[in-house]
Amino acid sequence: MELGIGTGWMREEFELLKTPSFEERGAVTDEYIRAFKVLWTEENPSFQGKHVHFADIHFTPKPIQPGGPKIWVGGESGRALRRLAALGDVWYPIAGNPRWPLDTLATYDAAAAKLAAAAEKAGRDPASIGRAYNAMGHSEVEQKNADGARVLLTGSTEARKQDVADLQQRGVTTLIANLADGTLEGALAKQEAFARDVMSAFK
């Protein structure tokens, strides 16, 4: 098992669920991750925080994985990268965040450099952090981002193959491409084309 972590982005969801305030979501997430690690690793776990606290409890059985499940941290912002450097195991950004888009190699590399700096500041080897990437799209038709650059995983077969190879070269071991469509037939056709034209180059 692996655990995916994200702080959320829609204020209305927080209000509907009556959680701690939207503005505190980052601090809440960090505290919960720390509490998870205590529960996973300590025989007599106790934790005293602002949002979670416990003592004199049993938490068994412990996870099979030493130290607990790997934590995948979603996010592209500076705060998300610092959270990952301090508490996570795998970086899982999405391409299409409008505030911090990572839809080209240039924007991905810039964020990766920030992650490396955050990891070093936290006393970690940046290479110890795994990488995944959610392209959020896939198209044989070349798409442009707000700056006019080609969006990753769009365009010709060769361009898309090169994108996958370039991401692989940067340490990405899990790649997610959105192959949905308005109909079942359309989705299956997209999946078959992606497997035939792109995935086949990496088998």
Description of the molecule:
It is a single chain. This protein is elongated. It folds into 2 domains: 1-65, no CATH class; 69-203, TIM Barrel (Alpha-Beta Barrel). It has 203 residues and is an alpha/beta fold. The strands form 2 sheets. It has a 5-stranded parallel β-sheet with strand order 1-4-5-6-7. It has helices at 11-17, 25-41, 78-87, 105-121, 157-169, 184-197; strands spanning 2-5, 47-48, 53-54, 70-74, 90-92, 130-134, 172-176.
Per DSSP E runs of 2 or more residues, the count of β-strands stands at: 7
Q: Total number of helical segments? A: 6
Major beta sheet summary: 5 strands, parallel
The CATH topology of the largest domain: TIM Barrel
Amino-to-carboxy terminus distance: 25 Å
- Which series of helices and strands comes N to C? EHHEEEHEHEHEH
* Main CATH class of the largest domain: Alpha Beta
